[in-house]
Design goal:
By secondary structure, this protein is an alpha+beta fold. The protein contains 10 helices and 10 strands. Strands 4-3-2-1-5 form a 5-stranded antiparallel β-sheet. A hairpin with a 3-residue loop joins strand 2 and strand 3. Helix 3 runs antiparallel to helix 4, helix 4 packs antiparallel against helix 5 and helix 9 packs across helix 10. The N and C termini lie far apart (125 Å).
Length: 380
């Protein structure tokens, strides 16, 4: 073992040797940076397993690989920048080399940020109850917005690294943005309305909606500019989000159970057995395969009308798109059953009685008055 005096003398000679040779310092700095980067790689791996260890294994593996690469290259490039500053180069090559190194670091972290956003949103979307930002209708919007923000921040950092004065660029961008906003008011209105629809969620993809303008169909796509509906005629209608934002929308699939209540009105004549009428209508609903058992169908006697008793059967179906078909089939079944059981469904009728006025005296040459009609309204 060397004595302390000899060890101190050896270290002094080594320091003098290294201090007189900048390129040796650079080589040692590179080695030190690689060692520190490897240590940081291990620390990042441990930190990820401790912080997101409950996430799926595929997401932890991809997240760890991307994070370690970003940290490793950042430390190495910072070492390269320190070496460039330490080695005596001409002023211009040194500035270019430093700017290039900083640009590479910024791009590496931009790629890291974009991949992290994608992995996190994908992992959150696979949860049993994903949060709002990771649901299918909003995940694309959130991802694109974050990517744009990261891109603008990276561009700003790159311009600063190259010493570009961004004051004029910001002013020019503001003027260009104002001009574009005035020239594309409708497009911007649709974009803002699309963001409001995606965040407020008055309807989702697959919902069956009815607009106050008469359009009725299933929502097939919700974009930033428009919403598309597939009608019962198998025709796709594209409606701008600005119109959707101002329209009154009835969401037939908006109930907690996503079931639709179907109303079946029926009129029978006075004197009918109301218990028999209600039992036959409920039996027709129970025999239909698309009518839900829970909630069970129910009957209501609504009014004592001018021409008969007005009943209404309430039943539920799973798909609002089948409303017309189920109502048609129930009406046909009820009509056949009532005809078989002798239950009369009245038709409004109007009786017209003609009466003739007595003729006037023969001396007066006047035309005979026309017959007059009196009418009474009856029902069968």
């Amino acid at each position: 073992m060397l004595p302390m005096s000899e060890l101190a003398s050896l270290l002094t000679h080594w320091a003098a040797f290294v201090g007189a040779r900048p390129f040796v310092q650079a080589a040692l700095a590179v080695v030190a940076c690689v060692v520190v980067a490897s240590l940081a790689d291990w620390l990042v791996r441990q930190a990820l397993h401790r912080s997101v260890g409950h996430w799926p294994e595929w997401s932890i593996e991809r997240l760890g690989r991307i994070a370690r690469q970003a940290v490793f290259f950042t430390i190495v490039l910072f070492g390269v920048m320190w070496i460039i500053a330490a080695v005596e180069l001409a002023a211009r090559p040194e500035r270019i080399a430093l700017a290039l190194s900083q640009t590479v670091v910024i791009i590496a972290w931009l790629v890291f940020g974009v991949r992290i956003v994608r992995i996190v949103l994908e992992a959150l979307a696979r949860l049993p109850s994903p949060p709002a930002i990771a649901q299918a209708t909003t995940a694309t919007l959130v991802r694109n917005a974050l990517v744009v923000i990261l891109g603008l921040a990276s561009l700003y950092a790159v311009l600063i690294a190259w010493g570009v004065n961004i004051t004029g660029l910001v002013a020019s961008a503001g003027i260009i943005g104002l001009a574009l906003s005035l020239a594309a008011q409708d497009t911007l209105g649709n974009l803002i309305a699309g963001i409001a629809i995606l965040t407020d969620k008055p309807y989702r993809i697959g919902d069956y909606i009815v607009l106050d303008t008469g359009e009725r169909g299933a929502v097939t796509a919700i974009g930033l500019r428009s919403t598309r509906l597939l009608t019962r005629d198998d025709v796709e209608v594209s409606i701008p989000n600005g119109v959707m934002g101002r329209a009154k929308i009835v969401n037939e699939s908006g109930s907690p159970t996503r079931k639709y209540r179907l109303r079946v009105p029926v009129r029978v004549s006075y004197g009918s057995d109301i218990d028999q009428v209600m039992a036959l209508m409920l039996l027709a609903a129970a025999d239909h395969p698309q009518v839900c058992v829970v909630p069970e169908p129910r009957m209501r006697l609504r009014t004592f009308g001018d021409f008969g008793l007005d009943f209404e059967m309430l039943c539920w179906i799973d798909d609002p798109a089948n409303r017309g078909l189920v109502l048609h089939e129930l009406n046909c079944t009820i009509y056949r059953v009532f005809a078989r059981e002798g239950i009369v469904m009245p038709i409004p009728q109007q009786e017209v009685h003609l009466t003739e006025r007595p003729a006037r005296s023969p001396g007066k040459a006047t035309a005979a008055p026309p017959a007059t009609a009196t009418g009474t309204t009856t029902h069968s």
